């Protein structure tokens, strides 16, 4: 099927994959809101949502329905187009990052008589991890536009906090990742995952976490700041800023802001597991691959990745309900005077070790 | 028309349209947004030329960092459409003159550029924009200019800090 010299089956395959990934991001994010409330409840010795369905499992649907039917208010003196664009942009950037994450190994399938190898990654670009950075650095626009166009001092202050916080922590995040890239020698997420095959080879762990533990720690702290999550949730600090950059928003526009944060959490957990915890790799995967058919093996790999992702999401939640909020100057000090020098030292040490011990 | 050409014309139209939007829109915040869209179109052109690294760096540095700072300044100064100062006739006249001169220079440059059609094929494979080749060229052949430009950035950064400090000391005194 060739029209305009485009491989249409390829496009259909990618569209299906994109739909599945986006819908499952929505699903995971919806149940992350439920999980957050359950985790909070358990940690504070409460019951949590229990009315809608068994264990309150229908709670996300009830919340979504409530947000949809609320009255929608656009403030009188706001900049209308930008006010509407803000949450849309935030949601779009949240969903875009998932394009470069390899969700599982390739599997082959017969479509229309020809056997095709189907990749469980939307786009394998050779600068994959930089693409993630590009999209993350755009995420701040949704917050800034929303905060500014609301024409409210608290919203503006909160938007500016969010922007300066994410710019500061992007630096440390990038520097910590450079050390990892020195080890992997590639920017493509597919190759990074490929190098972490299995769990143990040549007398050492294959996962990047064991090669670059300090880089992982810095990256993790920075992702808390990028996600605007406690203990770095300064932009939503209700005791100082009423509610934050989405104060003037109501109905589903507010819903999009809140929901996109959970999608961001899901995607950054996926990035963390892909870069540092081997992505879809797991111990003894070669033996499993030999024992089961190809399709089932892919399903197992995707499940393994999802288990890691859920683990990270739970970790994000435990931290939120354990640690108190930082002060804003403490946050910037930690970023600029703590994490950036630490990442630089890690960079130099990694470079020296590679040069002296692994220089072939 | 191949897919490549369709994409090229689409991106060119988008770049030109958004660039016009930057100077024509009354609201400075919208100008910044149009400029970001222009950067995206230019990044798209880079991808068409198989320079993925340049494309994404263009987005990270310009759209992700520099434009955020622009937006910062505009939001804090709260520039509005009605706050825009009326420019004098003389300034408009000078703008037309310098714009025309720039136009001439660009035409002259384009005329000579037509000869070097193999601009993106320095290594003969058309993959000069991929990060591996770019690193090889940057850190082998052009390592001195590269380091000199980093010194330039460092001096600019220190300069900004010095200017900032001075004002603080004055207000204390």
Explain this structure:
The complex is a heterodimer of chains A (360) and B (173). Chain A has 360 residues and is mainly alpha-helical. Chain A has one domain. In chain A, 66% of the residues lie in helices and 5% in strands. Chain A has helices at 8-43, 59-69, 80-96, 128-149, 153-184, 189-195, 208-211, 213-226, 238-241, 251-275, 285-291, 294-320, 328-357; strands at 2-3, 6-7, 107-111, 114-118, 200-201, 204-205. In chain A, the strands form three sheets. Chain A has a two-stranded antiparallel sheet. Chain A is globular, with a radius of gyration of 22 Å. With 173 residues, chain B is mainly α. Among the domains of chain B are: 1-81, NADH-ubiquinone/plastoquinone oxidoreductase chain 6, subunit NuoJ (Four Helix Bundle (Hemerythrin (Met), subunit A), Up-down Bundle), CATH 1.20.120; 88-125. Chain B contains six helices and no strands. In chain B, helix 1 (3-24) runs antiparallel to helix 2 (28-48) and helix 2 (28-48) packs antiparallel against helix 3. Chain B is globular, with a radius of gyration of 21 Å. Mean pLDDT of chain B is 80; it is low at 117-123. The interface between A and B is medium-sized, with 29 and 23 residues.
């Amino acid at each position: 099927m060739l029209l305009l010299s485009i491989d249409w089956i390829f496009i259909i395959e990618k569209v299906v994959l994109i739909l599945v990934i986006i819908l499952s991001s929505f699903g995971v994010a919806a149940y992350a809101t439920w999980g957050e409330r359950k985790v909070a409840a358990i940690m504070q010795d409460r019951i949590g949502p229990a009315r809608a369905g068994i264990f309150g499992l229908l709670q996300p649907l009830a919340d979504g329905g409530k947000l949809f039917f609320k009255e929608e208010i656009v403030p009188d003196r706001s900049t209308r187009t930008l006010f509407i664009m803000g949450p849309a942009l935030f949601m779009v950037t949240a969903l875009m990052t998932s394009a470069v994450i390899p969700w599982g190994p390739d599997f082959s399938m017969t479509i229309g008589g020809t056997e095709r190898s189907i990749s469980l990654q939307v786009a394998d670009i050779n600068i994959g991890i930089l693409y993630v950075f590009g999209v993350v650095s755009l995420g701040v626009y949704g917050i800034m536009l929303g905060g500014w166009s609301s024409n409210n001092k608290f919203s503006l202050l909160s938007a500016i906090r969010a922007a300066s916080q994410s710019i500061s922590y992007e630096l440390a995040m990038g520097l910590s990742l450079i050390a990892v890239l020195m080890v992997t020698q590639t920017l493509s997420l597919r190759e990074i995952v490929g190098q972490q095959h299995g769990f143990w080879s040549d007398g050492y762990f294959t996962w990047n976490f064991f090669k670059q533990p300090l880089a992982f720690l810095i990256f993790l702290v920075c992702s808390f700041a990028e996600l605007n999550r406690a203990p770095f949730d300064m932009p939503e600090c209700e005791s100082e800023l009423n509610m934050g950059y989405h104060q003037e928003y109501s109905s589903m526009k507010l819903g999009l802001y809140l929901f996109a944060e959970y999608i961001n959490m899901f995607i950054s957990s996926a990035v963390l597991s892909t870069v540092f915890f081997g992505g879809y790799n797991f111990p003894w995967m070669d033996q499993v691959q030999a024992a089961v058919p190809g399709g089932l093996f892919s399903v197992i790999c995707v499940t393994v990745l999802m288990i890691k992702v859920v683990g990270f999401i739970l970790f994000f939640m435990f931290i939120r309900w354990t640690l108190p909020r930082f002060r804003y100057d403490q946050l910037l000090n930690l970023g600029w005077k703590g994490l950036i020098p630490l990442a630089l030292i890690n960079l130099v040490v990694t470079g020296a070790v590679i040069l002296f011990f692994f220089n072939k | 028309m191949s897919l490549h050409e369709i994409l090229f014309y689409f991106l060119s139209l988008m770049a030109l349209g958004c660039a016009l939007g930057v100077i024509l829109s009354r609201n400075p915040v919208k100008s910044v947004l149009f400029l970001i869209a222009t950067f995206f179109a230019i990044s798209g052109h880079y991808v068409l030329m198989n320079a993925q690294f340049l494309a994404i760096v263009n987005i990270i540095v310009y759209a992700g960092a520099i434009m955020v700072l622009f937006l910062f300044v505009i939001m804090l100064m709260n520039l509005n459409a009605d706050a825009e100062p009326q420019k004098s006739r003389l300034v408009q006249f000078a703008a037309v003159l310098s714009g025309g001169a720039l136009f001439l220079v660009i035409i002259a440059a384009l005329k000579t550029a037509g000869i070097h059609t193999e601009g993106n094929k320095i290594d003969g494979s058309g993959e000069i924009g991929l990060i591996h080749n770019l690193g090889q060229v940057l850190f082998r052949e052009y390592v001195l200019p590269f380091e000199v430009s980093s010194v330039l950035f460092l001096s600019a950064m220190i300069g900004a800090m010095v200017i900032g400090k001075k004002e603080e000391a004055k207000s204390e005194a």
